[in-house]
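Can anyone check this?
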Amino acid sequence: MRSFPTGPGHEFSVTLARGLTLVRGRGSRVWDDQGRSYLDGVAGHGSLILGHAHPRLTEAISRQAAVMTSCPVSFGNDVRQQYLAALAEVAPPGLNRAFLCNSGTESVEAALKFARFATGRPGFVSARRGFHGRTFGAMSATFNPLYRRDFTPGVPGFAHVGFGNEAELDAAVTTDTAAVILEVVQGEGGVHPGRRAYFRRVRELCTARGALLILDEVQTGFGRTGRLFACQHMEIVPDILCLAKGIAGGFPMGAVLCADHLEPPLGRHGSTFGGNPLACAAALATLRVLTEEDLPARAATEGARLHAILSAIDSDRIVAVRSQGLMIGVQLADRAAPTIQASQRAGILALPAGRRVVRFLPALNMDPTELEQLSTGLAAALTN
C-alpha cells in the first residue's frame, strides 16, 4: 500500500500489487519512478501490441485530440466511419455488424445481451479455466471462483464444461442455450490453445441446436496468436466476436462483431464513450501498422522461436511451455509468483496465468534480441 498526498491533510491510498510505479515507456522498455528500466513482457496485459509510444499511434491520437475527442453514436463521425470500413475489410467473413465500446468486459456484456435478444433463450455455456471479465455477466461466464465468490449470486443461467470436452458440451447445450462462449486460447487460465477439431465441433453443435457461438478474442485478437484473429487458426467463423486489448494499441476500446443474421437491438444497449473519435483514430492507426508491417506473421515466427528458446531452458522447475504466437505460458512445478518477482528484480516484467504459470504477452514488434532477453531473465529467475 502506498499513500499519495492530494492536499493539506489529505492522502489517497492505493495498493500496488507489483510494488512498482511506472512513469515512462518507449518501445518494449519502461522506466519506474526511480529511473530504473525494465523489459516489458506484460505490455499492458497484452494491449500494447505496438509497444509504448509508437510514433504513428502517438501522432494519430495527438492529431485527433486537437479536432474532436467525443461524439456519441447518435451522430455520425468521419474517423469512426473510416475505422469501421477498415475493420470490415479484415474481419472474418460475414461479421459485418459492429458495436463499439470501451473494454473487453463491456464487449462480453454486450455479446451476452445480444445473444439473449436474438434467441429469446436464457442459458449460456462457457468453459472451465475460462476468463471473460469482471462485470456481472462476464464474471458469471468466468469459471474461477476467485473472481466470483465475494460477489455471488451472479447472473443465473451459466453452465461450465471442460475446455475441449465434446461430450460435456454436447450434454450442456440444450434448447434453452442462447450461446456458447469460449476463448480460442485460454489466457488467464494458463495459456491453453484449443484444438481445431474441437472448435469445428462446437460450431456444428451450435448451428444444429440453434445456439449462437460467441468467441472471446479480447486477448487473442489483432495478431497476438500469429493470425489477425485466432478463430482463423480454427477455420471457423463465430456468430459474435468480442474484441478489445490490442484493438487500439493500448488506448481503451472494445468491439463486438456480429454476423449478418444478427441485428444488435437498437436503443436497447449503448455506450456514451463507445466509438469515440479519439479511440477510433488510435484503432485505425494501429490496424494500419499491423497490416502494413504484417505483425501477425511476425508474431507467429518470433513466437515459435521464443517457444523453442524457453523450452531449452535447463530447469526441472519447468513442466511445460505452451504458446500460440506471442502468447506464451511457462508452467512451473511450483508457484509462479516468486519467479515473477525475481524476474522483476532482474529487470524483466512478466504476468501470472493462474498459480503456476508465468505468462509473456510482449509487443508484437519487440526486437528479437529483447525477446531472447525475456528467456534469459526467466532462466536466471528460476535459479534464484
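Reply from J.R.: I decoded it. The mean pLDDT is 94.
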